[in-house]
Fold each of these.
Amino acid sequence: MNLLQVRKGQFVYYKNELHKVYSVRPLSRLSIKLFRIKDMEQVNCRADELTLHRPQHLDSLIFQGVRYTLRKDKPAKVDGYILITHPDPGQLDHYTLNEFEKVGELVGDKVYTTLYNTVKPKEFLVLEPGEAPDSKVIDYLDPSLVTAEQLEADRELEEKAVEEAAKLPSVGDIYLNLDNGIKAMVVALVDNEAILGHGERVKSDDLFKSDSWNVIYSTGEEDF
């Protein structure tokens, strides 16, 4: 359905593609700010250009280049993602409708996210990697209007995400600092930082982009 009133966090279709509302400015001509969920591209628009979608169990979507299926029947996993569909935050929490949160720790039936929020099971759906056999793909409102060029762009986006993920460090990887000769193992990953065995914290991207670091053992390659 088309919207007359728009709320921050809503999933909406704009020009047939799935977006999320991240800002509403009532006095502006293009009052709604969106980002496209599959790649975070931002756009401004009007409320009457949008069609609402309420995410639900078994919806499948591309989020930041990776395809997931929303599940209410799967447990959250550390380093995985959840989507907060029924927010009921406590006094110290700071999340709202349809926030994507990364799982940092599981304690009992509660999820502690990397943004220091505590989320109860009734509040979220789990983002399970991949497309489940019985899922419904929701990237487009009307799949019959999707062009071959859009499908190819989606395929390339997913391939790029796989390549980027392969470059990121894992716990157990060993790196050599070419500046001082120190060898160090990755012992923990916190948000976008790798914590090395001798206590140094390095941006994950820097470990493969910087000329100062070289991986000498990778847990992701048996014959490395």
Amino acid sequence: MHPVQALKTGLIGLFLAGIMLASGASAQTRDVVVFAAASLKNSLDEASAAWMRETGKRIVVSYAASNALAKQIEAGAPADLFFSADLDWMVYLSSKGMIKPETRASLLGNSLVLVAPKGSTVQIALQPGLDLASFLGGERLAMGHVGSVPAGKYGKAALEHLGAWQGVKEKIAQADNVRAALLLVSRGEASLGIVYKTDAVADPGVAIVGTFPEASHPPIIYPVALTKESSNPDAASFLAFLRSDKARPSFEKQGFAFIGKASSGS
């Protein structure tokens, strides 16, 4: 065979092989990639396992603070679904055109509690005029970062509402997410911490010593939506499952209130 003809034949072969490889890859179903708030871990792990048993498909979940996940999605991280611990970061991505607004739903509600290491017998009335600093002594109050992490923002709002913020603002150990704040208390590295009720339920190393009044902070709502860049049909199926009665027990047993209301727009 002439060298030129041989080269052409080789190139055609490589081209056809590339098509076959691409076809094979597209035929395979990709994992559904979920970016979810750290406080969802126990319940979402259980719900994901139930969906995988039912469908034979696979879920991969990345847990972190909602602000960090939103920024990663904005930077191009290949997530199919975003499950936030507050509305602000969902609105943020929506304003950037990075979610599919018709898929957005406010799915869960939560409450905010004050925790101490397991075995603590103190009970603290979380009401106006609270002197939380007197309960801390020389130790720290663990919270998520108050400027970005949802649980930290809710916690600061609650402390300001009760008049306790000025007394403790210099005593705060700020963590990257709510589960990290919880761990500080569970390990005894902080004498008190502000976390979600669901986090406290999930960790036997802490005790709830007070519950913040609902009126002391904005409503704690967990919205979920598909990302704009997701083209995985299984992601829509998983979102539908999360909004169904099949997933409800996984969330309610951890202390979440199941809202399940659709919300379009930003």
